[in-house]
């Protein structure tokens, strides 16, 4: 499924009702977001939807995702090594 060119952004809470995340630290201000959502498609099959807010360049988006991937890889490796 693709996003239509004429679709308008809506509030994140409206787009993802019932989804909860941990709050930001005190006195932090959200500027944008990257969201990967596990969903069920119209036929009930698990699928993924990816959304970003305005304000991210391709380079910034790639950098953020690369760093998060590296951090997750490190955490998974540490958990695996602790299991030995």
Describe, in plain words, how this protein is organized in 3D.
With 84 residues, this protein is an alpha+beta fold. The chain has one domain. The chain has a two-stranded antiparallel sheet with strand order 1-2. The chain is extended, with a radius of gyration of 16 Å. The mean pLDDT is 92.
Features:
17% strand; two-stranded antiparallel sheet; 2 helices; 84 residues; 2 strands
Can you lay out the helices and strands and say which pair or pack?
Layout (H helix, E strand, L loop, with lengths): L11 H4 L18 E7 L5 E7 L5 H25 L2
Antiparallel strand pairs: 1-2
What percent of residues are in strands?
15-25%
Helix and strand pattern = HEEH
The profile of the biggest β sheet is:
2 strands, antiparallel
Computed over alpha carbons, the radius of gyration is 16 Å
Strand order of the largest sheet: 1-2
List unreliable stretches of 5+ residues: none
The outline comes out as: extended
SS content category? alpha+beta
Tally of separate helices: 2
Residues in helices, as a percent range: 25-40%
How would you state the average pLDDT, rounded?
92
Put the structure in a nutshell.
With 84 residues, this protein is α+β, with helices and mostly antiparallel strands.
